[in-house]
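Chain X:
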Amino acid sequence: MVNPFINANTITIKIFCVLLFFVSTLANASPLSKTLDLSEKLDLKNHPTWLKLLHYERSGDTSVVLNDTFFLSPDGRIDPEAELKATINAYFIQQEESDSNQAICRFPARYYWLSHHLPLSGYRLKNTNCSALNKWGLLDSVKSVSLLLVSGYLGNPASTFGHTFLKFNSNPIDNYTALFDSTLNYGAVVPENENSLSYIVRGLFGGYKAGFSDKYFYTQDLVYSNTEFRDIWSYQIMLSDYELTLLILHVWEIVGNKFAYYFLDKNCAYRLGELIDLVIEEELINDVRLWYFPVELFHMLNSIDRDRQESGSRKLIQSIKYIPSSQRKLYSQLKLLTPDELRRLNTIIREGSHSLQTQMQGLASGRKILLLDCLLAYQQYKIIAEKPDFNRIRHEEKKQTLLSRLQLPVSTGTPFEIPEIQSPAEGSRPMALGISVGSESNKDPFLILNWSPYKKESVGKNSMQGDEFVLADLSVGFDDDRTFIDRFDLIRILNLNTASVQIEDEDYLSWELRLGVDRVDDQDKDRHDGILSFGIGYAWQLNSAATVYGMASLAGHTIATPLQLRPHVGLRFQMGSLKTWVYGGAESVNSNFEFSEIWGGKINYHINDRYAVQAEFSNETSTELSIGFCSYW
């Protein structure tokens, strides 16, 4: 017979074990459950920083990151709440695992941010399981960051408007000579030998994938400053320790992931603006239109910085430093030479190192040292510019020059000044909107509206040193009974090479390009003449305020003579806020090379960075004179 007391005890023990199991399970699940509940109450799934960490579009509908591995949830690309829950779950499930591939090691910025909103038990900034992340140099070495603006480069369609990248400074003060500081660059992955037309079309319509890459600063300096001769402006950004850490950790997360690339808007400036947006309260890219040129990012930085200072808040921009191109450095150094010494230098370059001793005869020891130092600087400049090609003769010439220099006393070198060029973001914004009154022969005045998304004119308030680059410049006229296109330039470029020092083996050609439409009068009827014009010539800088040039252009026309020769001269000069450009010359009117007179020009008086009064005159189009007002924004 079974003892009823034994059965009762057994049942009681079983019930107690089941209850103990559930209590234990609930206790173990409690931190995760409580954390998920709290994230729901705080609505973290819709928090701007969480959406930025996932790189969601501004509408919040989807992430622009193309890699599935960037998400922990299968729906993470389209559902920020699902990704948040998966991220929190992964923390509690994997925190005891010893695996550098666990979520907390792959997405340290997410957990660093979440740790400031949720009680993540046992969270540490440096997790012992994340060996690769802990060895990463940026975590311990970075003291500040800088956004760098690179001047435009006409040798590459994607670089025409300039470029930007991020630099991680190992010094609290931005030291642009620290060549082994890390940088973060964003660019398209372009196949080798891609033809120019395909490159432009695919770049405009998102045909390329792109991503972030980290490199040493010296590799960026080699390309931009030493090979393409582009100037750089370094904007050091003031961030708190928290903001700096969050940015650095997110860089770890995002490097190697892919995005769709668009030259005009979703480009380097946009993506780097997104990264800075992650850690500051203001929006750098909240008003992005169909385009976002690199200089616009820096105009926004300046605007936010001014607003902060006016309100008494912490500055955004710590400092702005100019980094001149290697070409600009060389030309500044060569200005130390007298005209006779410069002639001797050019003779050595032209005839080779065997003429060294002859050309140095009659010079004092100090002037010989200066001449040889300048020659070595020139040879090094050319060697770097010609990479990856190896010029054996160039290297041998440098070797012989160095041997001659070693025969002379040690010298610290003669210091020289490099004129500082103002950042493009310190001038007018690129988009221009103008209103003016135009006139033509024997007709009533009419209204003209002008618009261009990117206008850097020779008379503009910008950093192009008298050069011009204008895109999609449209002028529409209105009178009593009609609306008409007065002028349209798809692209207009004037590139004046005004080197103040002439060196052998350097290209000093200036050039101009125009593709557009002019309204012309044909027996009292408006017609539109399509024009494709290209010209080459030379330019001379007379002084700091005046530049003169001569140009010979060949222009194709859709009206009258199909091909016309156009020799002309131009003058650009500045008096304070008043900038003027005038030209005059002749243009062939038939195949017998009979020429007609041409002339024209522009005058801009800049009230400030945003507004200007302008006048334009010409004898080549129906509109002979226009006077009006222009705003830049």
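Chain Y:
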Amino acid sequence: MPESTRDLGYLAWKNDLAWMESQKTKEWMTAIKKENTAFQEALKGLPVNSVQRDLISSGKSDPWIWKEWTITHAPFSPIQVWKRGSFQVSCWDADISTDRHWFAAAIQDLNGFERFVIHVYSLEKKTSPKLHHVISSCGPHVRFCKNDLIYSKSSKDLRYDSIHLWNSEGHDIELYVTKNPTEQVSVGKAEDGAVYVIVDDFVEKRLGFISDSVLYWKTSHKKDIFVTSFLYQIFNQRCPFSEEPLESMSLKAGWAVTRSYGIRTLWNLKGSTPTPQITVWGEISFDARDPYRLSVSDMRYEPYIVNVKKWVLNNPRAYPFPMTQYRDPAPTFVVFPENEIQGLLVSCYSAYGSPTHMGGMVHHWMPLLLRGWAIASVCVPGGGDHTIEWKEKGQRENRKIAIDTLRKAVEFLQEEHSISPKNTCLYGRSAGGLLVISTATLYSGLVGSLYVESPYVDVLRTISNKDLPLTNLETREFGIGTNPVNILATQEWSPMEHIPAEGLPNLFVIARSDTADLEVFPYEVMKWIWRIRGKNETQKKLLYIHTGKGHFTTNQRYLSEDLALLDQWNKSPDNISFTENSAVRRKNRSTKYKMAMSRKNRKNMTRKNRKDRKDRKDKKNSPAMMGGRKSTRRARKHTRRH
């Protein structure tokens, strides 16, 4: 049974719900059953099927066709489906040998845990792939270096600490192992076919390449490492043709992507001078095995592909919603419903230097948009939306900066668009859940609801427990219990330690987790839910704990249930919007005023100037390719931008 008191010598605190941490007792199973039953009861009578139809009808991305294989990505999941003829396999990653005789796939545990085995298949042209070999205790990535399989080995849950080579003769060779518990290893493939190795601790990386069954290190530990075709360079956020940080690049295909405060720019490197082609409110992704095909996820458009061989853009289809973006107090991207705003959902992540991924927000939140919600995505320090300094500004003892930045952004949106805190919801998953829960806890009354998935919420007790899978690995991201500076800084904002004695009775909560989650154990969210329930509870706290889904529980059905619950709560009599007498004044919410505009500038602008600014902004954001930028026409419904 876990000890209820955590004593670090210089700091001690007690947690009377520590008994949950074993997740094995009869009381634990009873608690899960009770929470799940209450969640299902709350769903009765809700139009979940209607919400799901609206979700399914939104944008879909095209599959990737490569070497006779069709590769599709499961929605809201890292799962890929590789298919050739009648054969298909669901995996986290897969690759094919140079001679096309071998196919390998990293397959997740069927019970949902992030534990992987590698299935190696022999390929014949006229027959289905045949399972040849199985490798256990592996990482989620596989790559062939010519005909040798390169993969990471796992010594324990979520700990990928060695690189191995397997060849067709059946020999398995260890190429590298790290003894540093804060480091993780991974493999990837460069566009020239070479296989590279990255050693990463969320702050510094080390790069090596494999040749003739030997791992050659090309760099020492650096803060930013970039891999290009035939030429391996360390850019350290310096870009020779732009002031913006360089995010990705292909010398073979002749393109580069820079990023600045959440906006990506695609550059054409062919010719004497690099030229910008499109700006993207979202992400530009690619696979080095086919660098001529770029997948664009832009919140303004349905997903589309750019073929850089011809630099052709096939008129992406625009979403029929007004949109805007702000720089201050934080880079914020907002999509509005076509009519009066009924509610506001703000999503945020900000961890590990990962980008915010606002590109798919319309697809993800389509049912809410159709029901009158505005959706915002906020970039705060700690994420990968700008520079290295931006990322470091929100890590470890600096995380309070990220919390305060999110709070300021929410307050700005509420005032700018006349949204009551009661009608405002914060959404976050995993480390994003920690951010939004901390913000809502420290600033009581900021929002009326939280929607969280697998939230990392018991941070202080987690970073002081080395037995948990990610505690040591995430030392440079969240800190660790052996460092008093980390602990004392974290206790200033750690949400579990700042819940008032009366709980958070006025906060509506929807939360999901899973018993197979190894990244964030479900006891964390259970402890949090129990603590925030006050004796005089006025809003529900709904928690569902799945079995066999792992860290990525979301699917279309579960998301539809959550959105139906959220929309019902927002429109319930117990959650009435601010009246005309409220301290937050209402503004004209016609579509005329939904372009990006500060309050000061709007006050000083004439109608003509507003129109001129609107036209210039539309032209600037239009993804015209190669040559002049075309003017656009904006209509309330079914707009199309070229």
